[in-house]
Write a structure and sequence with these properties.
The structure holds 2 protein chains of 2 kinds. Helix content of chain A is 78%, strand content 0%. By secondary structure, chain A is mostly helical. Chain A has one domain. In chain A, helix 3 runs antiparallel to helix 4 and helix 5 runs antiparallel to helix 6. By secondary structure, chain B is mainly alpha-helical. Chain B has 2 domains: 93 residues, Orthogonal Bundle (Rna Polymerase Sigma Factor, Chain: A), CATH 1.10.1740; 63 residues, Winged helix-like DNA-binding domain superfamily/Winged helix DNA-binding domain (Arc Repressor Mutant, subunit A). In chain B, 66% of the residues lie in helices and 0% in strands. Chain B starts with a helix and ends with a helix. Classes of the chains: A mainly alpha, B mainly alpha. At the A-B interface, helix 1, helix 2, helix 3, helix 5 and helix 6 of A face helix 1, helix 2, helix 3, helix 4 and helix 5 of B. Chain B: Belongs to the sigma-70 factor family. ECF subfamily. Chain B: GO terms for molecular function: DNA binding; sigma factor activity.
């Protein structure tokens, strides 16, 4: 197909007409499909970890643990949750520069920072919760095995998290590299 | 400019957003999500749109930026026959649909930056405008376009 034919074909593509009311809905954050999914996930995590904290402080003898163990538990759970809220805000920001190249560069930089912090905070969360449960208890072989199994269960999501971030950053980096090819 | 002006500008220019969605996403659901994401991003960046550049240039930049940078949902890759009769988002009463789909599928075989370049070229933007939107040199626009045209002519026969 010659270039003029390609152009003609492009121009002849029929597109639907969306009315003003529906377009207006699309500008509202609440009706955004991806953001509403993230919000649901955030809410569930927030409820889940709040429940963990309540269970720890009411049913798991938190008063028998040291003040330090209690403080570590609260900090290691609260900071990742707050960081996730920041992540939600970040997920709305795609346009970060006057042109697509600089926008992608800025986005990759900010995603890398976010990914590293997110993984570090997840490690902190695992370590903090682990420290709380293990403080003041005597470790015997049975408990050690339980601890090993628990660690594997906690490390698997961490591995998946690293993989997701590596893939996201990798995809954007490839796009940027191809865009800047021959520059 | 007010929300009303913004919406009427989007309504007037929604054809190009639909076309961008069709060259960047495979399924109608993903295209619908991307369309909404583009409108959302345009609305968010609208206050910073000074009017210094043409509204169409700003629209192309935000729409293409969103298409290449937004995350895709992991949907199962299910191939079905055409759209359900009650789905109105994409035009199903188009008798040239098959040929157009073949043409768009050809463009979708290009890399993501190449799709942006060819879309802007087919929209008849100048090399200077394309370079400004993408943030690359005019010379590079020319080099890339020559390569893409040859590739596309082979894909779309």
């Amino acid at each position: 197909m010659e270039i003029e034919e390609l152009r003609k074909e492009w121009k002849s593509i029929k597109t639907p007409q969306i009315d003003l009311d529906r377009l207006k809905d699309m500008t509202i954050e609440k009706s955004h499909p991806v953001l509403s999914g993230i919000r649901k996930q955030l809410t569930m995590e927030l409820i889940g970890w709040s429940a963990v904290l309540i269970i720890c402080f009411t049913g798991l003898d938190a008063d028998a643990k040291t003040m330090l163990a209690n403080a570590i538990l609260i900090i290691s759970v609260t900071i990742p949750m707050l960081f996730n809220i920041y992540g939600y805000k970040l997920s709305k920001e795609f346009i970060a520069g006057p042109d697509i190249t600089s926008s992608l560069q800025n986005q990759i930089r900010s995603l890398k920072r976010f990914a590293v912090t997110s993984v570090l905070l997840r490690i902190m969360l695992i370590a903090g919760v682990g420290y709380f449960f293990l403080s003041n208890i005597n470790i015997n072989p049975g408990k050690l095995m339980l601890l090993g199994a628990g660690s594997v269960l906690l490390l698997l999501p961490l591995y998946l998290l690293v993989r997701i971030w590596t893939k996201r950053v990798g995809t954007l980096s490839t796009t940027l590299r191809l865009l800047k090819e021959h520059e | 400019m007010s929300e009303k002006d913004f919406l009427s500008m989007i309504q007037d220019n929604q054809g190009i957003i639909h076309k961008i969605c069709r060259i960047y996403r495979d399924s109608p659901e993903d295209r619908e999500d991307l369309f909404q994401e583009v409108v959302f991003q345009l609305w968010r960046s609208y206050p910073s749109f000074s009017g210094g550049s043409k509204s169409s240039t700003w629209l192309y930049r935000v729409a293409l930026n969103t298409a290449v940078a937004s995350f895709r949902k992991n949907r199962p890759n299910i191939t079905t026959t055409e759209y359900l009769p009650d789905v109105q988002f994409e035009d199903i009463n188009n008798e040239d649909n098959e040929r157009q789909e073949e043409f768009l599928a050809g463009i979708r075989q290009l890399s993501e930056p190449d799709r942006a370049l060819i879309a802007l070229y087919l929209e008849e933007l100048s090399y200077q405008q394309i370079a400004g939107i993408l943030g690359i040199s005019e010379n590079n626009v020319g080099v890339k376009l020559n390569r893409i045209k040859v590739k596309l002519q082979k894909i779309v026969k």
